[in-house]
Design a protein that fits this description.
Two copies of one chain form a homodimer. The first copy, chain A, has eleven helices and 15 strands. Chain A has 409 residues and is an alpha/beta fold. The first copy, chain A, folds into two domains: 4-28 and 366-403, no CATH class; 39-356, Glycosidases (TIM Barrel, Alpha-Beta Barrel), CATH 3.20.20.80. An eight-stranded parallel barrel of chain A has the order 3-4-5-6-7-8-9-10. Chain A has a four-stranded antiparallel beta sheet with strand order 11-2-13-14, with no helix packed on it. Chain A has a three-stranded mixed beta sheet with strand order 12-1-15, with no helix packed on it. In chain A, helix 5 links the parallel strand 5 and strand 6. The longest helix of chain A is centred in the C-terminal third of the chain and has 20 residues, at 291-310. Chain A starts with 9 loop residues before the first strand and ends with a strand. The model of chain A has no long low-confidence stretch (mean pLDDT 94). Chains A and B meet through helix 7 and helix 8 of A and helix 8 of B. Chains A, B: Residues 54-352 form the GH10 domain.
């Protein structure tokens, strides 16, 4: 990746350092240390819900926090509220607080989805399904407004009204079929927006075809405010490659909306056969991670993350799982083996996030007006000078002048 | 096909026959003869444009008119107006008149399409492309308002903005990409509607995936009035079969709009390999019609037409070509061989349209109030009694009372 390709990920800030009495700190050493990325390097935090609730322990938290800064927490309705009226709010809220205390952003997934809709919804008349869906969305977004600033408002609306891969038809598909896709997208965004106007609400889909473009165009034409487009990218059938990835980004960036790569997986074992249509249909007893697979995965992770960061529309990437232990479909898609040891892919991603795309601790010298020019990746920094510290945010590309007082942090 | 499956295609009319002096014609023989179908059994009429203009002769007109009642005429822009400002209006209008004189309805195809856009459009700024497109649509619809009552207002809008299978990008794709799908659909319908408010305007596509559903939902949500949904069904890669056909009809009938099967082909030779994505990419020197292929085609035509007529939403079927001579892609998709002899598929379709789905000449007897109960396929009929005739339209299922005076025809 050339420097030019990452220009949109970095910023220059000319910082004037003032002493506590307001005088410029002339000709002094300043240590600049990056503290965080503005870019969301996300992963799911599902495994840490019991950890945060002190029900189990885990050795993996260190590995998680060393690379990732955004946690996706599960709000699959049938798991979250298996009995009507008894939602798992407290445990999830504690998990969100736990991630927040560790300096992470937290995202909820998903508010509305046909899969994992609760059984008790199935026999309801459609009007009651709608009312119940609306109430559930309002409830979750309101209860979590203090800790959860991003939501997948609706998941897979393209297939939602025609979803047929199930024995007993679910009520959300029925609702979507009777009301139409745009109406159901509106419903989800309307309720979530009302409950937390400040939240970032994502339209999320796995369908990368023209169908998703058509849905987006209809939704925008209908005046529904979307904050980001979520593109799933489970690559169980093989890495997309740079060309396909850039073509997809090009097509979906046409709408001028931020893009979140919401569900990214790359395998470190054999690939799922291409003829499988619904990934859920591929069920095998054992799906091992292999040495060759792990090398390939590491290489593809680096290529994929580089490609995604090269495109200015991409604001977030959520890798879908840290460990193979309990991974979706039993696939070796984790960055850590089932035994807890990191795969090469973990190390490769950490190198990108914490070394290549990270300003190393750097000592600069203020000029005779007390100024230093800091150039770094968008994110938060700490400046240390003469035993006192200050924080600095590099918020965008271009120049800015920030006057800092020592010891404000 | 059971009688029940065709109930929606037939109607009962209790007709009271009055003499010229207004007296009921009691206890008399009445001959009932079907004259036409309400259902549109269509075909393209491209080959008859030079015939209607007396530039060439053709032996095929008899075969055409014996089965089909709706002609689709070509308005491919680059052929229709190869030099800007010199459209082929007169020849096409004569062709439309010729078909009308033969008792046919006439349809224009298409008003807006990225393929076969004229070369002279290519370098225009997008605003000028839009103005030129709008003017072309207004011009054609207005000039043909007397003879052309149905138009494919826009063709293949799903792929239009992302169409890439060409060396030199066309201007319509650019317009669609910059404006968006819904805007360009609106543009086409808006201009056509303004030029002929009575026309039936069709949204036509080959994309039978959820993408087309999403587009339709967006278009309807945007308040654009669509008169019919056009579903192309070129089956060069094999007959869809009843199950897939009914599933498609089920999905697209959800919008409560009439469905036109706009481009139907079934081959009487080998099939195109399934891996071909854009049918236009399959180019072979010779594609013969074979005896086995002709038997298969005849069987599939019967099954396909039966399936389509069984679904109440379908109002029109356009078969795409009468003869193999000059057929699209050189495929043996005609109902007549290149030498002009009918294939078994022609005879099979004629049997359906003119025998199985046609009331044979039937003599009924009026009762003592001068009434006969006529049950027949929706369409126009002639009643003859005592050397005088009257016309009758069976316009819908259910009962009706129509009083006729002899000799009004």
């Amino acid at each position: 990746m050339t420097a030019a390709q990452l220009d949109h990920r970095t910023g220059d800030v000319l910082v004037t350092l003032l002493d506590v009495d307001g005088q410029p700190l002339r000709d002094r050493d300043v240590l600049v240390e990056q503290r965080s990325h503005a870019f969301s390097f996300g992963n799911i935090g599902f495994d840490f819900v019991p950890v945060a609730n002190e029900e189990t322990a885990s050795d993996l938290a260190g590995l998680w926090f060393d690379v990732f800064n955004t946690a996706t927490l599960p709000f699959y309705w049938s798991d979250f509220e298996p009995q009507r009226g008894r939602p798992d709010t407290k445990r999830l809220h504690r998990a969100a607080e736990w991630f927040t205390r560790h300096g992470c952003r937290v995202k909820g997934h998903p508010l509305l989805w046909h899969t994992l809709a609760p059984d008790w919804l199935r026999e309801m008349p459609t009007d009651e399904v709608e009312a119940t869906v609306r109430a559930r969305i309002r409830r979750e977004v309101a209860h979590f407004a203090d800790v959860m600033h991003t939501w997948d408002a609706i998941n897979e609306a393209v297939i939602m009204p025609v979803f047929a891969n199930e024995q007993h038809p679910n009520a959300i598909t029925r609702l979507a079929r009777e009301r139409g896709r745009i109406a159901i997208v509106r419903l989800a965004f309307e309720e979530a927006r009302a409950a937390n106007p400040a939240a970032t609400l994502v339209l999320n889909d796995f369908d990368m075809s023209t169908a998703y473009e058509c849905l987006i165009e209809g939704v925008l034409e209908a005046g529904i405010k979307i904050d980001a487009l979520g593109l799933q990218s489970h690559m169980h059938q093989g890495y997309w490659g740079e060309e396909k990835t850039l073509a997809i980004l090009e097509r979906f960036s046409r709408y001028g909306l931020p893009i979140h790569m919401t569900e990214t997986t790359l395998l470190s074992g054999h690939l799922m056969p291409p003829e499988i249509d619904d990934l859920n249909d591929y069920q095998i007893p054992s799906w091992p991670s292999t040495p060759e697979g792990e090398e390939r995965q590491a290489d593809e992770i680096v290529r994929h993350y580089r490609t995604l960061l090269s495109h200015p529309s991409v604001q977030a990437i959520t890798y879908w799982g840290l460990t193979d232990d309990g991974a979706w479909l039993g696939a070796p898609c984790g960055l850590v083996r089932a035994d807890g040891t990191p795969k090469p892919g973990y190390d490769a991603l950490r190198r990108l996030v914490k070394e290549e795309w990270w300003l190393p601790p750097t000592t600069l010298r203020t000029d005779d007006a007390g100024r230093v020019a800091v150039r770094g990746f968008l994110g938060d920094y700490q400046l240390s000078c003469a035993g006192r510290t200050a924080s600095l945010t590099i918020g965008g590309p271009g120049e800015a002048v920030t006057t800092l007082e020592k010891g404000t942090r």
